[in-house]
Write a structure and sequence with these properties.
The complex is a heterodimer of chains A (166) and B (439).
Chain A (H helix, E strand, L loop, with lengths): L3 H11 L9 H12 L4 H11 L3 H8 L13 E6 L2 H4 L3 H12 L5 E2 L5 E6 L11 E3 L2 E3 L4 H18 L6
Parallel strand pairs in A: 1-3
Antiparallel strand pairs in A: 1-4, 2-3, 4-5
Helix pairs in contact in A: 1-2, 2-3, 3-4
Chain B lengths: L29 H6 L4 H7 L3 H10 L12 H6 L10 E6 L9 H7 L1 H15 L3 E6 L4 H16 L15 E6 L9 H8 L23 E5 H13 L1 H7 L7 E8 L5 E6 L2 E2 H8 L9 E5 L8 E2 L6 E2 L1 H6 L8 E6 L4 H15 L5 H21 L4 H10 L9 H15 L1 H10 L13
Parallel strand pairs in B: 1-2, 1-4, 2-3, 5-11
Antiparallel strand pairs in B: 5-6, 7-10, 8-9, 8-11
The chains are: A alpha+beta (166), B alpha/beta (439).
The structure holds flavin mononucleotide and FE2/S2 (inorganic) cluster (FES).
C-alpha cells in the first residue's frame, strides 16, 4: 500500500500536466524514494494513476538509470569517474569505497546498508573528485574523507535504529 | 548543501551579470531577489510588445548556453504567432554534459532570476505554461525551485493576470531519472511526455511542433537566466560585454589539473590562455599543459599550442572546435590521451539511447577497441580503424550524440597520434607510472 502522503503527492504532480502520462517518471521517482525501489505494486499504482497499461510504465523504468527494480542499500554511494573526476583521482575514490565496503559496482553490502555505483558526471566537476550519497553531494574527496563519511553514515544508522526506509 | 565556496573561489577578472547575487545571504529567497532588481525586468517586459521583447533579445547577441549556440531571440521568433494551439516554454535543466556544472549554482543561488527569464520568454512567444526539466540527481535544486515558484505565485509573479497585465503564466518543475540523452531537446520532449527519451526527426523543429505537438521553445538554464539582465541593461550594453555576434558573459566551469577549479563568469571572448593562467591560477604542481577540452566532453580537444583563442562560439569554430557548454577541462603532461579517449567513449557508449545504429554500435565498439589498445593489446591498424568508425558516425544519427562521441575521438586520434604509437611500441601504457595512465 502506498502511503496517504505519497498518494497526495501523486495527485499534485499529475495536475501539473495536460496529459497525465507525463507524470510517469516523476511518480516513479517519488515512489521509489518512499518504497526503496520500483516494486511491481508501484508500477501498477503509477499505471492506474495516469491511465496507461502497466507495460508502458515498465518500458520507461528500463530506460532511466536512476530507477531500479531491486531494493538497494540505505545509503547509495554514487562515485563519479567521468573526465573531470578521473583527472583528480575519481577512480581511486571508487576503488577505495569498493575495498572499504567489500562490494563492487551496483552491489549491496549483506547488511543492506550500503550500495556502490560508478556513475557518469553528476555536475560537481569543479569539486572533483565527487560523489553523491542518495541525493546529497560530497566534493573534493580524499580516501580519508570517504572513511570518515562511511563511519558517520554507520553511526547515523545506529542512532536511528535499524529501519530500512528513508 | 555545498556552500558557495565550492563553486567559485572568485577572480577579480570576473564580470558578474548573472552571478552577481551569488554569495548574498539567503540569495534564493524572493525578498533578497526583490531587494536586488528582482522582477524589474518582468515589469519592463510587460509594458513592451512581445515583438519588442524578442527583438531586444535578438539584438543582444545572446546565444544558447546549452551547447549549440543558436541565437535565442531568433529561436523565439520561429514560434508561429497565430497558432491556435497552446505554446510551451521548456527550460532545459538536465545539465549532464561531462565537465559542466554551471546551471547548478544558477538554480541554487538565484532561482528567481531563472523564473523571471522563463516568464519573460513565455510572454514573448505567447505561452501560458512552462516546465523546468531537471535531472533526477539534482533533487535538492528541484526543492529550491519548487519553493521559489511557490513564492512567485504568492507574490503575483506567476499565475493569473501577472502584475495586472492580463498575462497568465504557470510554471512547474519536472524531474528526470538519469539519462544524458534527455538533455537533447527532442528526446527531452518525449521524456516530458512520459515516453522513453528517444530523439525525434527534425524538422519539424520544436518551435513549430514540440511538447504535445504544440509550438515549444526549449532553452538552457543559463540562457534564460540572462534574459532579465538583457532587458534591464538594454540589448546594446549587453552585446558590448562580449564579442561581435557573441553577446554578454558566460559561466565557465574550470576543472581538471588546474590550481583553482571553479565556476567563473567571464566576458564572451575571454582569452583561453588567461583563463587558465590568471583565472585558474595555472596548472597544479607547476606541470606543463598538454590539452584542453574547451566546452564539455563533446568538443574536439585542443592541443597546448591552440590556447591563444578568444572563448566565443565563432572563434572556437574557426579552429575546429566548439564553445559547447562552458566546461573547460585542463589536462596536464602526465595524462594518457588514449585513456582519456577511452573514458570519453565509455560515457557515450553508456548514454547512447540505442535508437540509431551508428551511434549505438560505434560507441560500444570504439570503447572496446580503446580499452584493449590502452591495456597493451593494440593492433597497428587500430587508430585508422577507429578514425574510420568515427567518420561513419558523424552526421549519421537523428540527434547529435553520435557526433558528440565521434568529434573528441577524431581530435585525439589526429593530434595525439604519437601516443597511440608509443602504446604499440611499448606494448603497454607509457603513462602507467603516473597513476592517471593505468586502468
Ligand atoms: C546528447 C545531447 C545532450 C544535451 N544535453 C543538454 C543539457 O543537459 N542541457 C542543455 O541545456 N542542453 C543540452 N543539449 C542541447 C539541447 O539539445 C538544446 O540545444 C538546448 O537545450 C537548447 O537551448 P539553448 O538554445 O538555450 O542552448 C544536449 C544536446 C545533445 C545532443
Ligand atoms: S566529471 Fe565528475 S562530476 Fe562532472
Amino acid at each position: 500500500m502506498l502511503s496517504e502522503s505519497l498518494k497526495a503527492k501523486f495527485e499534485e504532480i499529475i495536475a501539473r500536466y495536460p496529459l497525465k502520462r507525463s507524470a510517469i517518471v516523476p511518480l516513479l521517482m517519488f515512489g521509489q524514494d518512499e518504497i526503496g525501489y520500483v516494486s511491481d505494486e508501484l508500477i501498477e499504482e503509477v499505471a492506474r494513476a495516469v491511465g496507461v497499461p502497466a507495460i508502458e510504465v515498465i518500458e520507461d523504468v528500463g530506460y532511466y538509470s536512476m530507477l531500479h527494480r531491486q531494493p538497494i542499500g540505505k545509503y547509495n554511494l554514487q562515485v563519479c569517474t567521468n573526465v573531470s573526476c578521473m583527472l583528480r583521482g575519481g577512480e581511486a575514490i571508487f576503488a577505495h569505497c569498493s575495498k572499504r565496503l567489500g562490494i563492487g559496482h551496483k552491489q549491496t553490502t549483506p547488511d543492506g546498508l550500503f550500495s556502490l555505483e560508478e556513475v557518469e558526471c553528476i555536475g560537481a566537476c569543479c569539486g572533483a573528485p565527487a560523489m553523491q550519497v542518495n541525493y546529497d553531494y560530497y566534493e573534493n574527496l580524499t580516501p580519508a574523507k570517504v572513511d570518515q563519511l562511511i563511519d558517520q553514515l554507520r553511526e547515523a544508522h545506529r542512532n536511528l535504529g535499524s529501519g530500512t526506509g528513508e | 548543501m555545498p556552500d558557495y565556496q565550492s563553486y567559485a573561489q572568485g577572480s577579480p577578472l570576473e564580470v558578474k551579470v548573472i552571478s552577481k547575487r551569488f554569495g548574498l545571504p539567503n540569495s534564493a529567497s524572493i525578498d533578497v531577489f526583490l531587494a536586488h532588481e528582482g522582477y524589474q525586468a518582468l515589469v519592463k517586459a510587460l509594458k513592451m510588445t512581445p515583438e519588442e521583447v524578442i527583438n531586444e533579445v535578438k539584438n543582444s547577441g545572446l546565444r544558447g548556453r546549452g551547447g549549440a549556440g543558436f541565437n535565442t531571440g531568433m529561436k523565439w521568433s520561429f514560434v508561429p504567432r497565430q497558432s491556435p494551439k497552446p505554446k510551451y516554454v521548456v527550460c532545459n535543466a538536465d545539465e549532464s554534459e561531462p565537465a559542466t556544472c554551471k546551471d547548478r549554482p544558477l538554480m541554487e543561488y538565484d532561482p528567481h532570476q531563472l523564473i523571471e527569464g522563463i516568464i519573460i520568454a513565455g510572454y514573448a512567444i505567447g505561452s501560458h505554461q512552462g516546465y523546468i526539466y531537471i535531472r533526477g540527481e539534482y533533487r535538492y535544486l528541484m526543492e529550491i525551485l519548487d519553493r521559489a515558484i511557490a513564492e512567485a505565485y504568492q507574490r503575483g509573479y506567476l499565475g493569473k493576470n501577472i502584475l495586472g497585465s492580463g498575462f497568465d503564466f504557470d510554471l512547474a518543475t519536472h524531474t528526470g531519472a538519469g539519462a544524458y540523452e534527455c538533455g537533447e531537446e527532442t528526446a527531452l520532449l518525449n521524456s516530458l511526455e512520459g515516453l522513453r527519451g528517444y530523439p525525434r526527426v527534425k524538422p519539424p523543429f520544436p518551435a513549430v511542433v514540440g511538447l504535445y505537438g504544440c509550438p515549444t521553445v526549449v532553452n538552457n538554464v543559463e540562457t534564460l537566466s540572462n534574459v532579465p539582465a538583457i532587458l534591464l541593461m538594454g540589448a546594446e550594453a549587453y552585446a558590448k560585454l562580449g564579442t561581435p555576434k557573441n553577446g554578454g558573459t558566460r559561466l565557465f566551469c574550470l576543472s581538471g589539473h588546474i590550481n583553482r577549479p571553479g565556476v567563473y563568469e567571464l566576458p564572451m571572448g575571454f582569452p583561453l590562455r588567461r583563463m587558465i593562467e590568471e583565472v585558474g591560477g595555472g596548472l597544479r604542481g607547476g606541470k606543463k599543459l598538454k590539452a584542453v577540452i574547451p566546452g564539455g566532453s563533446s568538443c574536439p580537444v585542443l592541443s597546448a599550442d591552440q590556447i591563444d583563442v578568444p572563448m566565443d562560439f565563432d572563434s572556437l569554430a574557426k579552429i575546429g572546435s566548439m564553445l559547447g557548454s562552458g566546461g573547460v577541462v585542463v589536462i596536464d603532461e602526465d595524462t594518457c590521451m588514449v585513456k582519456l579517449a577511452w573514458r570519453i567513449m565509455k560515457f557515450y557508449a553508456h548514454e547512447s539511447c540505442g535508437w540509431c545504429i551508428p551511434c549505438r554500435e560505434g560507441t560500444a565498439w570504439l570503447q572496446a577497441l580503446l580499452a584493449r589498445f590502452h591495456s597493451g593489446g593494440g593492433l597497428p591498424q587500430d587508430p585508422d580503424t577507429a578514425l574510420d568508425a568515427s567518420y561513419n558516425m558523424l552526421g549519421k544519427t537523428l540527434c547529435p550524440l553520435g557526433d558528440a562521441a565521434a568529434l573528441p575521438m577524431i581530435s585525439i586520434l589526429k593530434k595525439f597520434h604519437h601516443e597511440f604509437e608509443e602504446h604499440l611500441k611499448l606494448g603497454k601504457c607509457p603513462f602507467e607510472k603516473n597513476g592517471t595512465g593505468a586502468f
